[in-house]
Every structure is written in C-alpha cells, then in structure tokens.
Amino acid sequence: MRSIILHGGAWDIPDDAVDNHHQGVLTAGAIGWDVLKQSGTALDAVELAIKQMEQDPTYDAGRGSFVNRIGEVEMDASIMDGRTFEVGAVAAVQNIFHPISLARRLMERSEHVLLVSEGAARFAREQGIAFCTPEDLLVGRELERWRQIRRIPGYSGKLAFSGAVEEPTHDPSLPGDTVGCVALDDRGNIAAGTSTGGTPNKYPGRVGDSPTIGSGTYALNSAGGASSTGWGEAIIKVVLAKTVVDGIELLGLNPGAAAERAISLLHHRADGYGGVIALDPHGRPGVAWNTPRMARAWMNDTMTEPFAAV
C-alpha cells in the first residue's frame, strides 16, 4: 500500500499561524503523494515533499530557518533509504536552499554518512548544488524573533565562545517548525527525511537531532520509518526515531502506539518535548506529540482524501 505522512513541527503554534501550517503540510503532502501515485520512489516522494516545506517560510527549514545567536542561518537535514539502509546527512550548512537534496546527494554519491559546515559546502560545490545568499533564507519574522528571545528574563545574551553559556530553560512554547516526511512506495520501499534550521538563537555550530540518524530520521523496509521534531537535545538522548521503529518491529506495536511509547520515554527520561511521525511496512500511519500542537498530514491508498491537522 502506498502511503505518506508529514510533519511541520511540534510546539505551541499560535492561532494566527495555524492556517499556514495546515495548508503547508497539505501542499507538501500532495506533492509527495503525486510522486507515489505515478509509481515514483519513496525517496523521491520524501525529498520533493520536504523541498516544498523548505521553500515555505512558515517552517523552520530552508527559507524561514531560525537565526542563531550571532544572526546566521545554519541548517541540518538527513535522509534514509529503508531498502538499502543507506543514509546521508548534513549539518550547520549555510546558503543552500534545499539541505535535504544535499543530504540525498551525499547518500548517493559519497561513502560518508555526515558532513558538516565547510566540508558540506565544499561537497555541495563539487556536486553542482546551487547556493543562495543569507538574505534569500531570512524572513523578517526570524530577525524579530531572535531579538525577542535575547530579551528572555535570565538570559544574558553573552556569546561566551569559551566557558558556559547561559541558556533559557527549554519551553514547548518556543518555536520548533522542523519538517519531516516518511513514505512507502508501491514496491514496498520506505524512506524518511528531516530538515531544520535548528532552535532559535542556538549557539553557532549547534547540531540537533534532525541530521542524527536514529534520532531525527530512521527507515528500514522490514520495520518502518520515522521522523522527529522538537527539542533536539532531548530527542538525541532517547534516539527517538529508532525507538519508534523498534517499537513496531521488536514489540509488535502499531505505529500510533509505538509513537506514543517513544514520546512517553522522551518526556520521562529526558524531560523532553516534541513529536514524531511513523509508517509501518503496511503503510499504516502513526503520530504522537506532547506539545500543545503539531502540524501533520497523511495520505494512503485506503483514503479518498488526505488528512491534515495542527
């Protein structure tokens, strides 16, 4: 059964942003579903759906990414092929519209799993990946949000490139619009991908869960696939995406129950907040979150129209 599921972040999405999040996952889902309907691959469906969300300024991925504490955009992405068990990931990349495509190129044309920063940029140039300017990625909302976060009580705003850095306690109301997708094609192949601009006002060079295979992204044909969103530092600690897939494969849980179990572990073991989407090898979707809202959508061969909610 062909199937696709997407997320557009899990946090306290404001009322005035709900419609954009809802329409965004519907639009990206339709693009991915069209690939699957035409007997395209799960990898193509995942990449194209995420590319759509990377160019939508609603989300914290590609255009619309959050700025770090020195006012720069650093993005992370990963993709995994459940058929071959191959993966590609990039982190702290700048001036690239579609980090998910760079991650896929790395998976398919390199022996490496993860490249970061200048190494990723060098590989991108060698592969003919198009670059953009910082202004192409920034939207005015992110500059203002950066200024607001720096005014949080108790946050000093010090760069402190050596020694401890004062941080606000993580709060599920803080923006977290990481995007992700999992797809199953008509050949039974599963793929998963995740893309993000990271957390608002993050320390330069910070890498979260999105490019971390097993935490942000995981896929295996015989078990399922998952993509995470939320507080990356906590998600990494519980290896959230793989925990969901293990729940499907090893515990015999349906995707919804496996996702709920993983989010419970995220909260109780790491005091973490976020959400996760999943598909099993039969194309059944699952989703769970412990934030006030989560943008998500899915479609499969048993449905007459897609489901989407925030």
Folded structure, characterized:
This protein has 310 residues and is an alpha+beta fold. It has one domain (3-151, 175-225, 291-309). It contains nine helices and twelve strands. It has helices at residues 18-37, 42-54, 99-109, 117-126, 134-137, 140-149, 232-238, 240-249, 255-270; strands spanning 3-11, 75-81, 86-93, 114-116, 179-184, 190-196, 217-220, 224-230, 274-279, 285-289, 293-300, 307-309. The strands form two sheets. The chain has an eight-stranded mixed β-sheet. Helix 1 (18-37) runs antiparallel to helix 2 (42-54) and helix 2 (42-54) runs antiparallel to helix 3. It starts with a strand and ends with a strand.
